[in-house]
Design a protein that fits this description.
Blueprint (H helix, E strand, L loop, with lengths): L6 H11 L3 E2 L1 E6 L3 E6 L9 E6 L6 H11 L1 H12 L6 H18 L8 H6 L12 H5 L5 H24 L22 H14 L1 E2 L1 H6 L11 E2 L15 E5 L3 E6 L13 E2 L8 H8 L10 E5 L9 H10 L5 E7 L2 E4 L1 H11 L6 E5 L2 H5 L10 E5 L2 E3 L2 H8 L4 H37 L4 H31 L2 H5 L1
Antiparallel strand pairs: 1-4, 2-3, 3-9, 4-8, 5-6, 7-8, 10-11, 11-12, 13-14, 14-15
The structure holds S-adenosylmethionine (SAM).
The site of S-adenosylmethionine has 16 residues, from strand 3 and helix 8.
Length: 482
């Protein structure tokens, strides 16, 4: 009797024929999709359990070359986008590749490509909040993810509308400038577009910092983002047995050396760490959360004062210096702490006219010593008669007493006000959401959301306590006694 080959078997044969070596199994892991599992007993001794050669990795340079040589329709798309001034970022190139290979190729009537076994093994459905129905989305009410998901959804919708006419050229019908080709059907739907974005973010590896920090790595494409077939079966764990490493030949999966003499038993799942990611980020990008996740964080838009006359200039200044208009608090041993970038964002947000704050148009004279020598800096920030041209100058100016104490006081008050507000908003929605959750089906997504909500609640309580303490420590003693 003829046996059917599964997509996994086809993929594994393809990987092996193309130089992937491994001493590890790939199998379904409950609630995680595919994952790695140890074959036999294994020592935790820095041994290599899988190797993926460079020629199997996907990055912008590789996709660009592939499109030119083997995928004329994809190349046409890239050229048309460039001609019309649409920026081809690494992310967009890889998303276009995934969409073309999974959906566009057959719509064009083209033969399957070399990459088919890889694209076929990618998950067909994703479970991130972008794919939630209205009920599940409502379960995010009151959380900081709610606005992030709405904003991302709107951004993807705008992007999709830009790319849609180009995708609609992926057709066996002759090219036309009319958008209403293919009998009014889109070749790539919005859901498929967000699938491409979701697959990209949940599987991509960033090589940038590794290439920069390892002078032994030579002759590697300069691209940051890479899709690494086979290695991207690795799931995330807080206690990973393995890590990945770059070499001049490819990528290795290594069983991390441990002081523990205990070997890894057969059939143990071998995970890597995706980094110190809080549940909010795991849910946003990957659609899951972890019960015992020690990493907590919360982000909210920079809170400018109501009727701040300088709001626009502050925003422009921050943008110019690459400061995101977002405040991120993370859990650190001593309390809830602002990231360095967020501290600067907060300083700018609480600076007032009475501190000597002014914004001036950039003159030629001030441009000469601008840190990035970029003549387009639209505004200079001034404190008193000091022009702040660099972020180091900003640090120095703010850290000078007496301004430093006053700014610290305002930052603490503003953060406290915001975390209190976020906590009370989360409290208000909790009851209603919990009711909704009880009446909902026993979905895995609901379990993940519940874990995230509880996590965010605890972290906000912790941040409120911590910033209340910080505020009290800045108050004169008699005031606290009252
Ligand atoms: C790089 S892929 C790993 C391979 C993936 N499981 C698959 O089926 O192809 C990352 C995705 O795996 C899933 N995943 C990874 N770690 C997980 C975990 N600890 N719990 C649940 N799902 C996980 C998530 O869907 C995530 O977006």
């Amino acid at each position: 009797m003829a046996t059917m080959t599964t997509p996994l078997q086809t993929f594994l044969s393809w990987a092996q024929e193309n130089g992937v070596m491994s001493n590890i199994k790939v199998q379904k892991i409950p609630d995680k999709g595919w994952g790695f599992v140890s074959k036999g007993q294994a020592a935790r001794d820095n041994s290599i359990v899988a190797y993926i050669p460079f020629h199997l990795l996907l990055n912008t340079t590789k996709v660009g070359k592939y499109a030119k040589e083997k995928a004329p329709k994809l190349e046409e798309t890239f050229q048309a986008l460039l001609k019309n001034g649409v920026s081809l970022t690494e992310r967009i190139v890889l998303i276009c590749f995934l969409l073309y290979e999974r959906f566009g190729r057959s719509a064009c009537g083209d033969e399957p490509s070399f990459w088919k076994p890889y694209v076929d093994i990618l998950p067909h459905t994703l479970h991130t909040p972008l794919f939630y129905d209205n009920t599940l989305r409502a379960c995010l009410d009151g959380t900081s993810l709610k606005s992030a998901v709405d904003a991302k959804s709107n951004k993807l919708r705008r992007e999709y509308n830009t790319f849609r006419p180009y995708f609609n050229q992926w057709s066996a019908q002759p090219s036309t400038t009319d958008n209403n080709v293919n009998d009014g059907h889109d070749i790539i739907t919005f859901d498929q577009f967000i699938w491409g974005d979701g697959v990209f973010w949940s599987r991509v590896l960033s090589f940038g910092s590794r290439i920069a920090s390892d002078s032994n790595l030579v002759g590697i494409d300069p691209d940051d983002y890479h899709l690494v077939p086979f290695l991207d079966f690795a799931n995330h764990s807080l206690r990973p047995y393995a890590r990945w490493e770059l070499t001049n030949e490819g990528v290795e999966l290594i069983l991390t050396k441990s002081d523990s003499p205990e070997p890894i038993l057969p059939d143990t799942e071998i995970c890597i760490s995706y980094g110190d990611k809080p549940n909010s980020e795991l849910l946003f990008i990957h659609g899951f959360t972890l019960n015992d996740n020690p990493w907590s964080a919360i982000s909210f838009p920079v809170p400018f004062y109501e009727n701040d006359e300088f709001e626009e200039e502050k925003f422009i200044f921050m943008q110019y210096h690459g400061i995101k208009p977002l405040v991120s608090l993370t859990r650190k041993k001593g309390g809830a702490e602002l990231t360095h970038e967020s501290t600067r964002a907060m300083w700018i947000s609480v600076l007032k006219k009475e501190d000597g704050l002014k914004f001036t148009n950039v003159t030629n004279e001030s441009n000469e010593s601008n840190e990035s020598n970029n003549e387009s800096q639209p505004v200079n920030l001034m404190i008193g008669d000091k022009i702040i041209r660099t972020l180091d100058e900003l640090d120095n100016a703010i850290n000078e007493p007496p301004l430093s104490q006053e700014i610290e006081r305002r930052v603490i008050n503003s953060i406290l006000e915001n975390v209190e507000h976020l906590l009370s908003h989360l409290k208000q929605t909790n009851e209603q959401v919990l009711k909704m959750m009880e009446s909902g089906k026993n979905l895995r997504e609901l379990e993940y959301i519940k874990i995230y909500r509880e996590d965010e609640y605890k972290f906000l309580e912790y941040a409120v306590d911590d910033f209340t303490r910080k505020r009290e420590s800045l108050m004169p003693d008699e005031y606290i006694m009252e």
